Amino acid sequence: QSVVELIRDANSILLLTHERPDGDALGSLLATAMVLTKLGKTVSMVAGGPIAPLHNFLPQIGNVKNELSASSDFVISINTAQVGVEKILYKRANDQELNIYITPKAGELLTDQQVSFKSGEAQWQLIMVLDCSDTSRIGPLFEQNADLFYKVPVINIDHHPGNDYFGKVNLVDFTATSTAEILVSLFESLGQGSSLLNEDVATALLAGIMSDTASFQNSNTTPKSFTVAAQLVAAGARQQEIVRHLFKTKPLSTLRLWGKVLKELQEEKDERFVWSSVTAADIAEAGATAEETSGVIDELLKTVENVDFALLLSERDGKVHGNLRAVEKNVDVSQIANMFGGGGHVAAAAFDMADVVIDDVKQQILFQIKQYQAKRIQGIAH
To answer: Does an H or E element contain 379, and which?
Structure first.
């Protein structure tokens, strides 16, 4: 109810999600923007970093910006209690100077004591952050505009267990498969009895759910996720289009990159995990982007038998990115990600190490994970 009230009171709303947005982040962002626009709001969508080409089919994806221009007005106030103003003019003196001329009414005198200056209100009245466990996941967009988050109310909508409740209002549901799943009930509340779901909104939301459940294959899939998915299909969600683009279409560059990942695949038999790595040079050689590594861990590495989890290390944006997927149900990979300052879900987690390359940190990462696994396996044995 608090979320609904904040949305209804705001006319201009900024929507944000995490860097390198996945299907849930983008589906949630786009669906929310379409619903808010339908409600008469002025909406801006921003996601830091590149958007993977496989998401280009999503409705209105071209409206997502990757930069945030958080400007506000500069206000010149004139106390007119004693002095009337006849006219105001402005004239550019040169390339670096703008003069503003204030002419008082005849016979009256305006002094500098009657003029004051202040910054105006931010251009947005509300910020909604989708699919982010904390503000650091927003990346430079947050770092460069931190003041904005103190001036403007923030709604935090997320499903990650590590969420740190950074919003003025926090709609966080750890039992949900995805942020998109949470939004379905929010849109019902905003609709006040009338459906806000059209084909495009339903398609964006279903893409978010299918992305985070790997098309209902992951262990996080629940009876509710099937119920919500059925509701979205009934509303016109283009399920086969989602399947084709997210799961059945791969550029040649992706296949080349995945081949490199498989060639480098290693098994740590005693510690029950498999891992691979791909460098920035490997990615460039394949003619791919770092985002194209995302599917290989789910579709290939996670299918290995007799292991607890899979790890993929990749170089992107001057960082080493670690991606973890659980294979066995009793394994919590978010605990491993936490060891390196990351986080995520029990079955899927990630971490980043800044200003390093894989060759510098690979052995350190493997050593710490092996120690963790040895203790965990020993504990289970006893």
So the answer is: helix 358-381
